[in-house]
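Batch manifest, entry 17 of 40.
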Amino acid sequence: MFGSFILGMLFMHPLWIAPALVLVLAHGAVGRVLSNLRRIWWILFMLATMGTILWALFSGGPTPFLGPIEWEAFLFGLGSALRINTMIIAGMVFLSTTRNEEIVLGMVKLGVPYRFGFALSTALRLVPTIAATVVTISQAQRSRGLDLDSGNAIQRLKKNIPLVVPAFLSTIRSTNVFGMALDSKGFGARPQRTNYLQVRFGAADVALLAVLLALLVPGIYMWVLKLGRIPGLTRF
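Output type: structure tokens
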């Protein structure tokens, strides 16, 4: 997954970025988590569409293509959109296939302080809680006659402002209770921590590391040779 992510960041041309996206999707297929893409497909579509248009408008090239957009600029915009979607899908696959405990333990094994890893794990764990709180508050506001669905995008955004304050206060209250629970259990009383979950570097990890190097080394070499770029792209 990490190798696929890095490969997608090295190149500009969409034909060179597409294999990295395919590798990320292959990881998701092996992990059987591609069904989670259904929840964010609209976000991915909007990011791809708007990203392609905006980057194409603010880039340039010598070959006319469509109105003010040149062919080289269109390729750059499409490649940038694919790169962003690759990043988002890679993160989704990683979070869908890796438990929070495994993320924290992996970070600690790499030398990251446990408190930082625990804070990241707690933030990830609170995301669905905050989302559920926002849904509950929006339902309560609808029961009081607040229409959140009608109007254009700006009007709907303004109508959602009353949801921000109660959601923020509820999150602060939950965080305060969570902090008191940690204090009552003696969090941080000892500098050395033990872990119920144990991770060992085995033969499968060695094989995956070899595959990672087999992908990254040629990719970095091609990047040094300036391959995967868009000929004629004048500004980006």
